[in-house]
Amino acid sequence: MSSGYNRSLVGVSVIIVIGILLVGTGMFLFLIEMPTDPGNTTTTTTTPTSPTTTTPPPPAHNPYQVAIVFATGDLGDKSINDACYSGAAHAFSDFNVNFTYTEPTSVSEYETYLRGFATHTGYLEPYDLIIGVGFDQEVALQTVANEFPGQKFAIVDVFIDPIVYPNVASLLFDEHEGSALVGAIAGLTTTTNKIGFIGGMDIPLTNKFTAGYVFGAGYTNPNLNGTANIWANFTIAYTNDWFDTTAGKTLADGMYDAGADIIFAAAGRSSLGIFDSVKDKNITSSVPLWCIGNDVPQMYIGTANPDNPVAPTLCLTSMLKRFDVAVYTIIEEWVVDGTWNTGYNLLHVFGLANNGVGYEVNTDLLTLDPAIVAEVEAFKALIIAGTVVVPDAIYWI
Questions:
Q1: For 66-173, CATH number?
Q2: How far apart are CA 65 and CA 336, in angstroms?
Q3: What distances in angstroms separate CA 256 from CA 210, 250, 347, one per listed residue?
């Protein structure tokens, strides 16, 4: 007890002496803290700091004039996305119109990407044009177009009422006209008088292909219409999926086994299964089997090595749906020329007359009989002239 007491006393004495000396010299000491035990003392010094703030970079000038939200399936689909990209690339080459794009992986992402482009976060200027690719962007684009009435939009492959949405241009196609031409080729080529059609979905858009194909085949080959039951000569089925190549192959296998020798496929990526089927089935078939491609030139896929295509091909032709022409045209009209129509003039329909649809000819891979080409071209002229009207919906039920 004595030892602890003395230690405290010594500490007090030292503080008093120091205080006297400081006063004696005319200086003042303000004691903030006096430790009770000088032998066990630590001192902490804290330096005040200013709050840290992050200044976001200022908005930049938008380097792009066009933004594109592609359909699910990504670039490399050998179909609608690749064709639309080609049209935008062509516009860049001709007019130096820069474009950017995004590749959604699901339908649920469309609205987010469209809205992101419409808000143009980080850019001072909006895009001159935002393009949505594919019929399944309809609802998402309507929602965003309604939120941003000053932003110009275009949508590929679906009708959006321009009276309700005056800032949306619809890019549509006469698929039935182009399908009638490849149907005519099928009617003139078949040896079994049985042909097939495989679509992605049983919906009005797909059935424009169906109707045109059946009509064209029957137009050039009356034997296909020689029965009251059209199903005896035409087999029609749907994969119910745009990406299921296995489903496409399974349906095609069944059609070829049942006697069809030509199948037209309009099923998106699922159509690649039909190409697999025709290659497999031709190995043992007693008659030549063919398929017909869609949307873009696909005759090369029917060769033994599509990465290095050389003749022969098992793809007779392809129905060409010129998405590239549609995208190029709307960019030229609005971005380059600044021409934005109103009302139903916002509807752009691409058919045979304006090179919006057609059929593939690739003499490096396959040469059609000149007589077939001549008959198909005559049929085409009649359609353009309006002498022959191709149905755009299933008409035989």
A1: 3.40.50.2300
A2: 10
A3: 18, 10, 40
